[in-house]
Write a structure and sequence with these properties.
This protein is mainly alpha-helical and 593 residues long. It contains 23 helices and ten strands.
Length: 593
Amino acid sequence: MKKTILTAFCAMLAAASLHSCLDFDMPTDTFTGGQTDLDPVVYKGKADSIDYWKNISEEGFNEAQSQLSQYFGQMRTAQYYLRGGKDAQAPAAHQYQYVYSITVDNYAGYMVVPHNFSHGGGGLLNSTYSYNQDYCDGPYGAFLGVKNNIANMINHPMIDSIPELKAIGLLIFDYSAQEMVDLYGSIPYFDHKANKESNPFTFNKMEEIYISIVDNLDTINACLKHFETRPDWYKSGVQSILSQNDVVSQDQSVESWRRLANSLKLRMAVHIAKVQPDKAKKWAEEAVQAGVIETTAQEMLLDPLIEGFTHPLIDISNSWGDTRLNASFESLLASLKHPYLEYLIGKNSDVIVNKDDATDIMQANTRIIGLRAGIRMSPGQAYKDNFRIAYSKLENSEQLAMAPLYLMKVSEVQFLRAEGDLRGWTMGGSAQSFYEEGIRNAQIENRLIPYYPDYVDEYMSLEAAVPYKYEDQYDHSNDIESVTTIGVKWNEGDSKETKLEKIITQKYIAGFPYSYEAWNDLRRTGYPKLFPVLNVEDGDGSLVQGDIIRKIPLPGRDTSVGMSDINTSGLDALGGSDTQGTRVWWDVEGANI
């Protein structure tokens, strides 16, 4: 019955006629954003000081719960902001597009914008290295939505009477802040955590931010662990708050949030493995020992089946024509004979004609065909105006429509542990076992509507990549042989570098379409191997052919006040120029292992 309803719902979406309008809030000169009605009182306290040993009376708890009730609702809104929601609403296409689709989805090699938004979107994307401040500030707008809905709560004097909610609120803030500093290289982290409202803001060094977040995560873990010792009336009160305002854990439990904190610490540990290997090992082993996400039931996610939305990429891809398959992702999936080619990605939707030979025609529905990153696109979101709209898009299907938006997927944690074991860290198992379990848990579709398991055994048996050549029907100068040479099956005789490439490649596929972590891995390891981006000179001038974009320029550069903060503290925090070619702190050259 559920599948029948979902199929009908997807058919309804296909009939809708929508247009992209790119209306997500952008940071202003005061770094504020979002439209949620917030308390006019601004609280400033010690957000990361959590007195979880405090004795709390039932009367004190009830008073705190009464005074903080509006903030718990805003905490729910903050969770939506983490994955493209806005104004107390679940994720939707407009916001998701600004946060992911027109920037990092393209940098990571998953997707490509097939046109240039010349109809008012602000300028050429060239898929998408051409610099546009509004687009580049999109992810930061979502972070500010998180901050504006959570900072008052974690700085409120009454929150210390419910320390577990303070810990969870701080975790939400830190999760988003960690994402942002990885993208931009620096943010005004401490000012935002302290609920500072106006300029000047001080940008902080990434290393300092990482250390502060991990210190917070350790405190959060300890606080949420201590919850087990609380009296039953207290546990019941906290559980009641979570049951109404926790939208990302599957059981609305303190324990699920505790495991998220440790899993985030593990993610951060792996990020710094090259720049600070000893600290990375320490953080990773501590995280695993404390308890990370280990089952699908512990995954943290926004579930369309529960929250009542469809995956934003349905509209962005199918209704608006604003994203298409990246040729690199096509080649990777084809070289590995991945199951997604069977049910997630469509063939060309219309005729594609070679630009030099009008008789060389590819009829509609012939094959899966992506677009090379960096192609200089034409305007138009309809096929009659822009033939590139005919290139492969994501299927308008229940597999995508009901796909969860993950904060932390068990497969990611398993691949993190696989990489950790490969590096000689104590991860509680072998690289092979974590790698294979990561592949088995990698599906994009909702786990209640499984398709992937029917294919996974055959997929995991592939010992070597299948020869494949990407061919661009319109312009054969873009044709290129696959750069994927590894297989899927684990081979204990492979070198450590080959094993790492396999781990990161499968992590990359398993994480789709969450592009932030995919781009992190691509920058820090060079994996998975992708096609060279064309026309990188269309960026900000800091890249040469063969480079990939290493970071997003700092937010707020289009205002004089924001630029003043960048000049005062931002450049020093980066340790280099504020350009696309500047490497963030953990992105260092040299051997991976």
